[in-house]
Write a structure and sequence with these properties.
By secondary structure, this protein is an alpha+beta fold. The strands form 3 sheets. Strands 7-6-9-8 form a 4-stranded antiparallel β-sheet, with helices on both faces. It has a 3-stranded antiparallel β-sheet with strand order 2-1-10.
């Protein structure tokens, strides 16, 4: 098999299945991925922390399922090669890796360009490559191929399919004990192996996202302990019901049930209840009830009604036509503000005969909304997604009305109100305000953690 083609397969391999070991007396600095603050004390996020979070979060999704299959394939290969005496020696693996590096460099790649190489120690990498060499040897042995005959990807796939057929393999998490990723016959592969595989093959952005997720979960759970807040089964039931009602009321889902939505993600309601992210949201909701009681929020509404309406009041779906303008035009931006305002006034007159959607597709300089016929989505008055001048103009209009040209810092706008939310009642505003405060609390928890990534 071409070593260059085998790199992707090698990156899907995993270390030897092992029994759980006690943590070392002293933490290896290389295992630390981030530092943060929790309850005023320094804490660390380790590879194991992130790996377990990735395993729990991704195991039922396509990427997690593929990784579970890779765990099975690796175990089957290692067991068969060990029985047949076909596992390579270290010197053979080192020579294989040297040749692979040469081919990568000849193709214009560096080994470190691959996340799975960057995130893997040499010992782990050699272990992965040993399995790939062993798999080729097994196929050659089974098919009685000569040493120079190529082993194709289809041959490898067929060998693995046959190996699976002969052994009892379980990858469905609902049929496995807690903490187990897959089972082959009587051998359980621990969930941490799945997580470490996912971590090694993740790009930096994904790894950092899961680091922040670990920190958030630890922090929100610590805050709940401080406030004496605990989750009960009824809280999870209520959170599931809120999800179900939200799905039923959202026109985007067109009558699709919560169970159907979860099934598309490889989840069940029971599995959702056990996810730390879901439980942390239920915990945040319960914290918000304690920290932001109805009476306090109602008083805030009476005291600062307009400020509350700005952030949680009725929304408007807006259409825009945007012309970029500078005080001093250049070869790229050819309009000054006066010319842009004059041109938009002319464009507005065309709306007597043309639709706003068609005009926006022709005239607008905003790439994000131009293709949508100017549709800029739903906004509240306090939105930070559009200029203040645009929002002020929009909330002075009625449904289907179009503003006069509006000048903002980077150009000029025509604004149309495409749709309007019904005005919420005061109890609804109080509940929305609590949800808003909960989101602020979640952001503050992460900010206070002062995460420092280890590079």
């Amino acid at each position: 098999m071409n070593p260059l083609a085998s790199l992707t397969l090698a990156m899907l391999a995993t270390p030897t299945v092992r029994a759980a070991a006690p943590p070392p007396a002293r933490q290896d600095p290389g295992d630390v991925l981030a530092h943060y603050q929790l309850e005023g004390k320094p804490r660390t996020v380790t590879k194991s922390d992130v790996a377990l979070e990735m395993a729990f979060h991704l195991r039922r999704r396509d990427r997690g399922k593929q990784a579970c299959d890779a765990l099975v394939d690796t175990l089957l290969t290692r067991q068969a090669a060990t029985r047949a005496g076909l596992m390579p020696r270290e010197a053979e693996v080192r020579a294989y890796w040297d040749e692979l590096q040469k081919q990568l460099q000849a193709a214009g790649h560096r080994p470190e360009d691959f996340a799975a190489v960057r995130n893997t120690s040499q010992a782990e990498l050699f272990d992965y490559l040993a399995v790939q060499i062993a798999q080729e040897r097994l196929v050659r042995h089974e098919l009685a191929l000569g040493p120079k005959e190529a082993v194709s990807g289809d041959m490898l796939k067929l060998w693995l399919q046959e190996a699976r057929r002969k052994r009892k393999v379980v990858t469905d998490p609902d049929q496995l004990p807690a903490g187990t990723a897959v089972r082959v016959e009587d051998t359980n592969v621990p969930l941490i192996d799945l997580g470490l595989l996912l971590l090694r093959t993740s790009e930096d952005e994904e790894r950092d996202r899961f680091i922040r997720q670990v920190v958030y979960l630890q922090s929100i759970e610590a805050l709940a302990r401080q406030k004496g807040v605990q989750l009960a089964a009824a809280d999870l039931d209520a959170a599931i019901q809120r999800r179900r009602e939200a799905a039923a009321n959202d026109p985007r889902y067109r009558g699709i049930s919560l169970e159907q939505m979860l099934q598309a993600e490889g989840l069940t309601v029971a599995a959702l209840r056990e996810q730390r992210v879901f439980r942390s949201q239920a915990l945040l909701d319960k914290l918000a009830l304690v920290m932001y009681p109805d009476a306090d929020l109602a008083a805030e509404l009476q005291r600062s009604r307009q400020a509350v309406l700005d952030v949680v009041g009725p929304r408007r779906r807006l259409g825009i036509v945007f012309l970029r303008a500078f005080e001093k035009p250049n070869a790229i931006v050819t309009l000054d503000f006066r010319a842009a305002m004059k041109r938009l006034a002319t464009v507005r007159e065309r709306l007597a005969k043309e639709t706003f959607e068609n005009v926006a597709r022709i005239e607008s300089d905003d790439p994000d909304t131009k293709a949508q016929g100017g549709d800029a989505g739903w906004h509240r008055r306090g939105s930070d997604k559009l200029p203040r001048e645009v929002l002020d103009a929009a909330f002075a209009l009625g449904a289907d009305e179009v503003s006069q040209p509006v000048r903002a810092s980077e150009g000029c706008f025509l604004v149309k109100v495409l749709d309007v939310d019904p005005t919420p009642s005061d109890p609804q505003l109080v509940e929305r305000l609590r949800e808003y405060r909960a989101r602020e609390l979640a952001q503050k928890v992460l900010l206070d953690a002062a995460i420092e990534m280890v590079k």
